[in-house]
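Section 5.1 Outputs to date
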Amino acid sequence: MLACLALALAQEPPHPGQVIAASSDCAACHVVPGVAAPSRAGSCDGCHRWVRDVSTDPAKRAKAMQVFPRWARYEKNVASYFDVPDLGASFARLDPDWIARYLADPHDLRPSMPETMVRLGLDGAEIGEIARWAATLSVVAPGTPAPRQANVPRGEQLFRERGCGGCHDFGAASVTGVLPAAPDLRWARERMSDDMIAAWILDPQAVSAAATMPALGLGDDDAIALRDYLVLADPGGTTARAAVATAATSAATPRWDDVESRVFGKICTHCHMDPAQNEGRRGPGNAGGFGWPATGLELQTYESVVQNGDRIVAAIERRYAEEARDHVKPGEVPAAVSRPELPGMPLGLPALPADDFALVKAWYAAGAPR
């Protein structure tokens, strides 16, 4: 996959942080400044968009049904990585120090989005280089007055009148946002400077041409008042609770077709491919990616899934330990968690539903019947 992430041609040598971002598969999900987009086969969002687009075209879908025996399964399972942020817009406005902290210990910024930022397998020095590169792409916002508590009531009124809550949540104070790509605004005060929040409210496209948020048509005073509401108001919220990996229970003995269709073939094979079935591709989980070394683990064949039961169950269990920070409900505050040395699986997605994990454990406990 890394060969697909070659840096775009430039007049000057690329920044070390740009090189690290390219080699860590950031472009597999995001548009990354100065980094060439990977092929469809090496792109998470690109492949998913292709499935969605083909599925809406009757002629293309009919052909896909002939070429891909499991096309109907693709349509059913592909539901993520459609709304990933453009890193050009992100780096233009976000505080580089916050970027470094976030990459080291990401948390759920968008409760309406099922996927979240993956924890990259990078050390502090590598993360620091990415943050320093982001700083070279940041925009300097015009100076503004310091936030004032007296502006908060007017800012709250504007938040509601201008429909901010139609896209965004604001902690527990507003949980009406329905646009998955729109972040919870409780984090604006941490992610951006006060000056940048005001500039972004006034004219997002002036900060970055890649911005998707529309300008609200506010004057300077109202933009400041709305900024002060986001910076000073208490968003409230309860701390998310840790998820629980339930004990294995099943009314009937599950078989390979059951666990393959509900778990391994639905989620795991996206990253842990069998090269014999994918023109030599192994996927980032098998071959290494997102800064993590190769596992050599393919989860597309019965034989490999059976032989690696202990590793698989342990990886799924690790994900539950991270859930209270990586995936939260609107109005919840991500919990501080003790990160396991290796990330839980599935990477970047919610932990398996308890019933599905119970099915997997019951299958192994029964001797993994074919």
